[in-house]
Each structure stands twice: as C-alpha cells, then as structure tokens.
Please model this.
Amino acid sequence: MKTLDADSHSAGQSHRYHSWLRCIEGCAGSYSLDSMVYRCPSCGGLLEVAHDLEALRQRSPAAWMKLFDDRYKRTTWPYGSGVWGKKEWVAPEVDDDCVVSLDEGGTNLFWAERYGKKLGLDDLWVKMCGNSHTGSFKDLGMTVLVSVVNQMIRQGTRPIRAVVCASSGDTSASLAAYCAVAGIPAVVLLPRGKISTAQMVQPLANGATVLAVDTDFDGCMALVQRLAEEPGIYLANSMNPLRLEGQKTISIEIVQQFDWEVPDWVVIPGGNLGNVSALGAGFLMMQELGLISRLPRIAVAQAAAANPFYLSFLHGFRDGLQPVVAGPTQASAIRIGNPVSYPRAVRTIQRFNGVVEQATEDELAQAAARADLAGLFTDPHTGVALAVLEKLVANRTIVPGQRVIVISTANGLKFPEFKIRYHEGTLPDVRPLLVNRPVELPPDYDAVRKAVFR
Ligand SMILES: *Cc1c(COP(=O)(O)O)cnc(C)c1O
Ligand SMILES: [Zn+2]
Model:
C-alpha cells in the first residue's frame, strides 16, 4: 500500500508512519495490512496490527493530545470521525480519499447520576457506543476494514469479489452499511431465528446477500472461516485485526473526553472478545506513547447462558478455553460459545488486573430496567454490563469514589422485543419488578384527570 504522509493535514512535519500485521504469539514475519491472511502462517495464531512506535514518538504526548483535540468532531475529512481523528495510530497507510467513514465515534458519555447514586457511585458514566450509524460499536472497526478493502479495490492490488462475515447481528448491519456506501458486495451469515428483527432487516435493506443458516453463531463462524479461503473473498470478522484497530479508539476517546484522565474501571460486555482486547490495546498504546501513566482495571461481563470466558477466568485461565454451546439469551449479540479472540482477551485481563463476571437473564433485564428509569434506553448487552457492575459494587470490587465507565455497545432501539416483553412480563426467566404499562382510557376528561392525579 502507498504510504500516506500522515502529517499532511497538520503541522507540516514530515514523519512517516507505518503499520503491519504480525502474530500475537511472537512468531517472526510481518504482513502488509492488505494481505489476505487472518492467521499466522507458522503457528495458526491470531494476528495483530503493529505500529512503528519510534516514528510515533517523534511527536510529544502533548502534541498528540492537541492534534486529537483539534480534530475531534471538526470538519476536515475524514479527521472529524472519532476513529480517523486518530488515523496515525490506527491505519496510517489508508489514503484519505479511500476512507469509507460515516462519522463514527464521538459518542456521548452519559453521566448516570441517578442510577449511580442508587449504587453508591457518584462518578459512573456510560459510553454510548450504540449512538452510531448502524446502532452499535461495530461501526468503529468496520470503517477501518472497509476502507482498507476499498483501497485494495481502487488500487487494483487484490481481486475482491465480496466481503463476508458471520454475525450475531450487529456486525452484519455494520458491514452491509459500509459496503453499500462504497459499492462493495457484502455477504453475511446469520444464525437463523437467533437475532432481533431489526438486526435482520438492516443488512437486507442495505442490499447485502443475507444467508440465514440453521445453526448458531459459532456454526456460522466455522463456515465463514472456510469461505475466506476461497479466491476473492475477504473476511470481515473481528478475527481480522483491522477491526480491532478502529475499536481501539474507544479507550482513547474516553480518556480524551475526561481531558486525558484515566478512569479507575471500565466494564464491557464480551462475546467473541475482540472488543475487550481492542479496549485494552488503546490504553496500552496511550501508555506506550506517554499520553497516560496508569491503566484502569477492566471487567468483562458475560451472559450466564454464554459464559466460556467467565468459566475460564474462574480457573485462572489455567485450563484454557473450554468452548460451550451457548444457550438462548436476550443478549443475542454475545451468544457465543467459542470466542475467537480468547487468547487476546486473556492477556488483556491479566495486564489490566481485570475480572470476568456473569449475569443471568433476570439480572440483565432488571439492571436494564433500573438504568432506564434514570434516563437510559438500555439494550440487553449493556444490561449484562450493568448487572455485572451491580455485582462488583455489591462485593466491593468496585468501591465508591472510583470513576467507572460502562461501555454501552448497542442502541436499545435495535432490541424492541426485549423492551416490550419486559414491560409485558413475557421475557423467559425474568420476573420483571419495574413494569410500566400504558393506562388505557376512554376519551373522557374525568377519567384522564383521575389517572393523572392517581
Ligand atoms: C459484538 C457485540 C458485543 C461483543 O463484542 P465482542 O467483540 O464480540 O466481544 C457486545 N454487544 C454488542 C451489542 C455487540 O454487537
Ligand atoms: Zn505465530
């Protein structure tokens, strides 16, 4: 790929930045970002994006912070995006005019004041990653992946016939939208009948080829990994480290939103475990480049119905990953029994003195309802994270006075069945405590008045 002079936008300095793929297990060998390899050819391990940190260190921490702040939500293409504003740290070799961006990132931090007070926390924040083009944080990574593919197609370096992914719902929505913007064919494999209607409709509307396969997410993932070996097929799952590079900006953006202060805890729901690894990578890169001097602790939240990472954590990760068959859960996007990014996530938990906790269907639904009463509109995955937060406060792992960030991964509007059925009292395994129902009335003033003053 062509090397972009990444400073062309800013101060007229002329460092050149460079990134490449390498094995996370430390095998020799490096591959360009546009090589269509997804596993280490020597050991079969996962790949990660590495950056030329020496070149990045030529700019001082204060200068990076200023550059990122100057670009944040501004108008110079594509740097107003929360992801592309950190382009030198993400994918420096993508040409600006190959970038496929929908202004991802830049989402608000919701101060959960009333909800936090009930838990004894006065510094609790929810990072609203679902306030995004397709309604989930998946957009942060997809913009990078589709931009790299777009560059390959435009420069004719690789023959790409289609980009494919297996999805528990949100990945396919994101892939389909970004590909539709760029005019690139997308194929998505979904577990038939196991995702929300809204999630199913998104890739259909964007013109992707939608394969509803009679299996679960793990079954789709296995099929897609074989498909990716066919000529001209590019793999878009988070096994592909390009996505994690974009998602990594979550942590940079959170710290930036606190004027470069590091929180004490980040709580994040985990399924395939790419996002927690990305979260960790962002903090580590800020530390390596001197923007921050300490790390937060990280808590991964799993649904009890799909908890292989939790079980492995209970055994100190000694027995490795024992895949499970993931059962039904409202948190359908994390219904994953055999998480691909497990090895990355173990490292993140170890490095960040992290914990893994789980939440039942009842716990996730009640936590979501409690948070909703304080102004949120919580999707079930964020419900899992909030339920886990409540448990960690109850057992004093998280204590009053600490600044805590909960990553909200999706927009509640994508999961209307979850909301409706909670307030109807028809969610399986949930005894709803906070039901609120419409008061049905005749068009009669006295009846209305009575209802208002009751
Ligand atoms: C993808 C997704 C997750 C899980 O992220 P992983 O990287 O698979 O751990 C959590 N919540 C939502 C809403 C998602 O779409
Ligand atoms: Zn290797």
About this structure: Confidence is low (pLDDT under 50) at residues 1-15. The CA atoms of residues 277 and 345 lie 5 Å apart. The pocket of pyridoxal-5'-phosphate (ligand 1) is lined by residues 136, 138, 170, 238, 269-275, 333-334, 381, 409-410 (CB under 6 Å).
